[in-house]
Specification:
By secondary structure, the chain is an alpha+beta fold. The protein has helices at residues 13-20, 59-68, 99-110, 124-141, 147-160, 165-170; strands spanning 23-25, 30-32, 44-48, 54-58, 75-79, 94-98. It is globular and about 50 Å long. Bound molecules: zinc ion.
């Protein structure tokens, strides 16, 4: 679940540029490489207010508002891709859902139903985020910057934490 309220995010051109440098765009998810919230495991970003004070905002919220404008009243951002560090606001990733939709999705996950049953990373949200960022950074260091290659790296590191992976191996 994500925060749904709060003042809109107003970014200067310099803010947008700084925000963009913390994102790695794979062919699927766009991975946030900056700071990670605890215990949520979401990307977080410090934004300087006009009065000079700083506020922390979730990275996917900033990405959403940059792409689509202010979050509608009562809406909650949801990760359809289940990757909490993802800031891709295209179809299948981050979308603005109603609070009811958000609760419904959480309930379905607990009941082990839906398209990706019971998919809760065994490393926990913060552990998954750390593993994802490490894998992506390593790939970039090795010069594997092609979006398709990076998407493969991401899929592999996500699969490591899949609670069903060991069961599948036993079958
Ligand atoms: Zn995604």
């Amino acid at each position: 679940m994500s925060q749904s309220r709060g003042e809109p995010v107003n970014l200067t051109a310099a803010d947008r540029e700084r925000f963009g440098t913390a994102i790695c765009r794979t062919a699927t998810c766009h991975i946030w490489l900056g700071s990670v919230s605890r215990p949520g495991g979401y990307g977080q970003w410090w934004l300087r207010r006009p009065d000079g004070r700083q506020r922390v905002v979730s990275a996917h919220r900033v990405a959403f508002e940059v792409a689509h404008g202010p979050l509608p009243e009562g809406a909650t951002l949801m990760h359809d891709c289940e990757v909490r560090l993802c800031v891709n606001t295209g179809p299948g990733h981050v979308h603005a859902g109603t609070q009811a939709e958000n609760v419904d999705q959480a309930v379905r996950r607990q009941r082990m139903a839906g398209p990706r049953p019971g998919l809760v990373d065994v490393r926990g949200p913060v552990g998954q985020a750390a593993a994802v960022q490490t894998a992506i950074r390593e790939a970039l260091t090795q010069g594997r910057s092609d979006p398709d290659q990076l998407a493969e790296v991401l899929a592999e590191v996500i699969a490591v934490g899949d609670p069903l992976a060991n069961q599948l191996r036993l079958l």
